[in-house]
Amino acid sequence: MILEDKILFTGGSGLLGREIKKLIPNAYFPSHQEFDIENYSQMKEYLKGKEINQIIHAAAFTSPPKLEKDPIKGIDTNIIGTSNVVKLAFENNSKLIYISTDYVFSGEKGNYSEEDALYPVNKYAWSKLGGECAVRMYDNSLIIRTSFGPNEFPYEKAFIDQWTSRESVSEISKKIINLLNKDVFGIIHLGGPRRTVFEYAKSLDKSKDIGKRSIKEMEFNFPKDTSLDSKKYNLLMGEIK
Question: Does residue 32 form part of some domain?
């Protein structure tokens, strides 16, 4: 049984937060003004009088192109901010669930397992890996590497030469909720089948006319294949034998 009133979710105004709130509406979803992860004293003050046994940490600066131009924002939010959340979890003896990214991998091979070597190719991914390092200092934690997008594909074109395990935010949210009652720690991958971003986009709405584009057209460095092996999650849920 999920004790919603003992769960704190950071980043509640984001895409994932809004979807998770539909599933556990009685959890705490503080605003940035109430709970700024760069302001540790404010974070501690917010938790006074609250019994929190799980923290789902999704607050992050998530624009890779913007972080290439302003890496300090990634340091402040994704590394230092996450470190503050880890300290708060230590102080409150709360389980910490950290939402990371498939971009921590180089993208050279795809179908990455939880044990594969990490090598980000852009500053956003390095900042999320920095957050992972802080979380790994706390034993009562779970790192979720995943990729998700809106329930409707928001762009006119999609990459035909970038492979992913991305799923809609509604699907990933359900999988995250499934883990809340599981005694699992360390790292776990969540995602769907390996496919191109174009194939993923078409799966959301087969009737939508979506154009094709290449990552070679982009100035920003996109990894080619960050598809994830979700076998560990599937075994945990009894989906495969």
Answer: yes
**Alpha carbon 214 to its chain's center:** 24
The count of domains in the chain is 1
pTM: 0.96
Residues in a beta bridge with 157? 211
Q: CA distances (Å), 18 to each of 112, 127, 181, 201, in order?
A: 28, 23, 21, 21
* Beta-sheet pairing, 186-189 with 141-146: parallel
Q: Exposed, middle or buried, 4 (CB in 10 Å: 0-12/13-18/19+)?
A: middle
pLDDT tens figures, 106-124:
999 999 999 999 999 999 9
Reported as a single tens digit per residue, the pLDDT across 38-70 is 999 999 999 999 999 999 999 999 988 899 999
Q: What's 28's domain CATH number?
A: 3.40.50.720
